[in-house]
Amino acid sequence: MDRDWMRQKLEHFIELAAKYRAVRDRPIDETREPRKHLFEAEPTVTKILRSLDPEMLQVTVLTKDAWAGLQIATDEVQRGLGIVKDMDEWVIRLAPDAPSLPADQFHPWVWDAARTFWESRHYRAAVHAAATSINAHLQNKLGRRDLSDAKLVAEALSDKPPESGKARLRVPGDKADTAVQTRQRGALQLGQGAYSALRNPAAHETGDLTEQEALEQLATFSVLARLIDTCRVEVKA
Known about the structure:
The protein is mainly alpha-helical. 65% of the residues lie in helices and 6% in strands. It has eight helices and four strands. Helix 5 (123-142) runs parallel beside helix 8 (211-230). It is rod-shaped. The chain starts with a helix and ends with a strand.
C-alpha cells in the first residue's frame, strides 16, 4: 500500500473538516465551497479507512444533519491516520523473530576461505573462494588433479564402481539401503548444481552479489562441504 499517499489524503481531509467547522454556522453561501470539498474527498477517505481496519468497514465519514449541518467522523479519520503513521514501525517492531545464520559456523572449508573476502565486502569473490577451497579438499581426498569442479564432483560421487586412479566417495551407510542410495544421488546432484549454478557465475560474471545472496550461496557450499567431508573414499580393490 502507498502509505504516504494515504497519509496525505487523511491529513487533507482533516484540514477540510477544520475549514468547514470554522464557517458551519454562517450563511449557506459561505459553507457551500467547504462542503463541496468534503464530499469530493469523502469516497477516497472512506476506502482508505476500510482498507486499514476491518472495524471501520461500516464507517460513515460524512452524515447530513438538518439541524447541525454535516457530521464528520473526525475521530475515525484520526484513527486511520494513526494507523498509517505507525504501520512502518509495526513491520519492524512486531515482526516475529527470525533465525539467524552465522557465517562463522559454516564448514571450515567454506568460511576459512571466504572470510577475508567477506570482511572486505567482496561477496562474489567470497563465494568463488569457498568453491575453490572445496574443490581443493576434494582433490586431496581423492588424490586427483586431473579434474576439477563439477566434473570432479561427477566422478567422485558417481554410483559406478571405482576404477584405477578413479576413487569414489560414498556417503556413510549400507550401500544396499535405498535411503543411502538416495543420499548418494542427492549429494551428486547438489554438488553439480552448486558448481554449475553458483561457482561458474561467481568466477565469470561481473558485478557483485548482495550480502544476502552471497550468504545463501555460502550456506549451499557449506552443506556440500559437510557431505563431502563425511563421505568415505572407495578405491578399486
